[in-house]
Amino acid sequence: MARNGAIAVIAKCPIAGKSKTRLIPLLGEQGSAALARAMLSDVLTSLSRC
């Protein structure tokens, strides 16, 4: 099957204290960065199957 088209993913690097800042009070800096990292990983994994 031919693959036509492209998908661009634009994301910030999941750095503690800089990503998902609204979740820092709930998850902490490391926790919010880990969540951002996991979410980005899920997106990239899903797209790798396209």
UniProtKB/TrEMBL annotation:
Species the sequence originates in: Phaeodactylum tricornutum
Gene3D superfamilies per record: Spore Coat Polysaccharide Biosynthesis Protein SpsA, Chain A
InterPro entries per the UniProt record, alphabetical: Nucleotide-diphossugar_trans
The protein, known as: Uncharacterized protein
